[in-house]
Design a protein that fits this description.
The chain has about 325 residues and is an alpha/beta fold. About 40% of the residues lie in helices and about 20% in strands. It contains twelve helices and twelve strands. A six-stranded mixed beta sheet has the order 3-2-1-4-5-6, sandwiched between helices. A hairpin with a 4-residue loop joins strand 11 and strand 12. Helix 1 packs antiparallel against helix 2, helix 1 crosses helix 12 and helix 8 crosses helix 9. It is globular and about 55 Å long.
Length: about 325
């Protein structure tokens, strides 16, 4: 059985579910054993050659921390012999922390899997240049469409095609909020409900201001059109105390206008026959128009931390097959 060694940083809703999925995979003996050699949350860290994933899950659930140890310095944690660093930490404001972390991982011979959008949205060029310099790989499936496959489809399923236009619902929080507001609910009431259901973060301001969708727009336009955009190069908007309509959705679009790549996240009213109009209130999805594979529509019924964690683990498996 092939074995791959992983360091996980960030054990919130997504990170904890990553551990659960890894534990399930290892119990199935599916041909790949993922050995956890380091893990950290905002309170503590632990490293070692044979960490017990189930014990770490139990400790996090019971005590709110991965171990009773003090937090280990990141540089020390990355010295543990590993193959992949997995980043499920909360986004920083300017992406500098993430960019520095990934560079340190590349220097130590690790590939990176991330669910954290800020580094890629703010420091795309720096991160990609660093990966190239150290001949390492970075995958980021979970950063844009949660658990809905996107980059793996671009990488493996429509290889003969060029994407002409991307249209997607990639912010479950804002769409959950505006669709409930269209039915008469108040903004504060819906936000509290979204937090309780795990749809929104405990501090949902990045989502509500549209910043989260803006970050996703940056990642998309850079990936699709080879740009090195940052947040200042895209347009995005958030939720306001407005009377929204039943067909209103926050739509992220990426396309070229007279040869210039454009990325926008805005609230728009969709026609009844629009594929995105019919994505469920808890779901995510997108439409990509290509030159050779036609129009490809992908969506799920419900998308949350568990589905996002599934995308993270899928990236780990992809990298394990390339190592």
């Amino acid at each position: 059985m092939k074995e791959i060694k992983v360091i996980l940083m960030g054990v919130g809703n997504v990170g904890l579910n990553v551990l659960r999925i890894l534990q399930t995979n290892n119990e199935r003996n599916g041909g790949l054993n993922v050995r956890l050699v380091g893990v950290s949350d905002s309170h503590s860290s632990v490293s070692g050659k044979n960490l017990n994933i189930q014990d770490i899950i139990r400790n996090k659930e019971l005590n709110g921390r991965v171990s009773n140890n003090a937090e280990i310095d990141v540089a020390e944690l990355l010295k543990e012999r590993a193959d992949i660093l997995v980043d499920c930490t909360p986004a920083s404001r300017d992406g500098s922390r993430e960019a520095d972390l990934y560079k340190m991982a590349f220097q130590n011979g690790l590939d990176v899997v991330t669910a954290n959008k800020s580094g890629l949205a703010n420091r795309w060029k720096d991160i990609m240049d660093s990966a190239k310099k150290y001949s390492r790989k970075i995958r980021y499936e979970a950063t844009v469409a949660g658990g809905v496959p996107l980059f793996s489809i671009l990488d493996y399923s429509i290889i003969p095609s060029r994407v002409i236009r991307f249209r997607g619902i990639v912010s479950s929080t804002i769409n959950y909020v505006i669709r409930n507001m269209a039915r008469g609910a108040k903004l504060d009431q819906v936000v509290d409900e979204a937090i309780r259901k795990g749809i929104a973060e405990r501090n949902p301001q990045d989502d509500l201001k549209g910043l989260d969708a803006g970050r996703k727009s940056v990642i998309l336009v850079n990936r699709l059109f080879g740009t090195t955009y940052t947040l200042k190069d895209v347009r995005y908007e958030g939720v306001k105390e407005l009377p929204y309509g039943e067909n209103d959705r926050l739509i992220t679009e990426v396309y070229e206008d007279n040869g210039k790549p454009v990325a926008i996240s805005r609230i728009a009213s969709l026609s009844e026959d629009d594929f995105l109009r019919h994505i469920d209130i808890d779901g995510l999805g997108y439409q990509i128009i290509t030159d050779n594979n036609g129009t490809v529509n992908v969506s799920d019924i419900s998308d949350g931390p568990y589905e996002t964690a599934g995308a993270v683990v899928n990236d780990i498996f992809i990298l394990s097959n390339k190592s």
